[in-house]
Amino acid sequence: MLIISEALARELVTAEDAIDAVEQSFAAMARGMARNYPVVREVVGHADAVFGVKTGADISLPFLGLKAGGYWPHNLPRGLTNHQSSTLLFDPDTGRASALVSANYLTGVRTGAASAIATKHLSRRGSTCLGIIGTGAQSAYQLRATMAVRDIRTVYAWDPSAGNLDKFGKLVAELGLDYRPGNSREAVAANADILITVTPSSKPLLEKAWIRAGTHISAMGADTRGKQELDPHLVAGAALFVDEAAQSVSIGELQHAFGLGLIGEKDIRGSIGEVIAGMADGRQTDDEITLFDGTGVALQDLVVADLAVKRAREKGLGVNVDY
To answer: 283, 123 in Cβ contact below 8 A?
Structure first.
């Protein structure tokens, strides 16, 4: 078995690499060559943790595996990140465990990649202003990935933590962008061409009236029943795209509008994979508001782990152990 550490994973997979890999995986899902299996996600009852297991397979590459981990909210004082996860890959020909990959960085970079892919295919091409609601650890991945697909010049940001805003601002300055921090959520929404929400919120943070025509929204925070970042009427009034429809209406941002009867599955224009593969229309006019509900699927995790393993083997890196 090949073991890839957290530090090595960072060396092997860039934001651009992740965008390319996840885009191919989304398209494989749409074509029926890749499939996510049912998700397990539960409250542990210890340390206020939430634990989950995501599994899937892509027969086009091929790869097979699972990612296990979750959210431990008291980790920061211990010098650890709150999100902890690991990916285990299996040989698709024999079923033997073949690689163990640290997935903290890879989870961040694949989440940024999914949002950027939606931005690439759904936002207006001339979009230059990015708005971010939530400037915690994931915001850096979102910013770098968005810059890989659009010519971002200005960044508006909101977060309840001044410390998060300051830390994020240092990155924005290092990248040579104009930073507008500490705005109200309404101001961020009103100025953004591309709007990304990446929070653990369980109540709406953005109202329908705040969003201007032509905005693209990537809602990336809701991945559990009860989480919510958008007003359900905002959701119902947008052109809807998903990573996986079943997850979106059950644990994603769409769950609330769906539960209220404001939308049905027929109102989802398509998955982002179907848009990539030319099987569904993306943005139809410059004025429509497009919304991507990114719940996070197993294949995103597995494809970046598979890429890390392939590159490690090519370069003779990682630790091989008998298993």
So the answer is: yes
Cβ atoms of 13 and 102 within 8 Å: the answer is no
Angle between helix 15-30 and helix 137-149 axes, rounded to 10 deg: 80
The whole-number pLDDT of residue 286 equals: 97
> Per the omega criterion (within 30 degrees of 0), is the bond before 232 cis?
no
DSSP output for 14-78: -HHHHHHHHHHHHHHHHTTSEEEPPPEEEE-SSTT-EEEEEEEEETTTTEEEEEEEEE-TT-GGG
- The CA-CA-CA angle for residues 303, 304, 305, to 5°, reads 90
State which amino acid sits at residue 239.
A
- Retrieve residue 33's tokens: 């060559």
Catalytic residues: 67
Distance CA 297, CA 111 (A): 10
Per-residue pLDDT tens for 195-239?
Answer: 999 999 999 999 999 999 999 999 999 998 999 999 999 999 999
Summarised one tens digit per residue, pLDDT across range 245-258 is 999 999 999 999 99
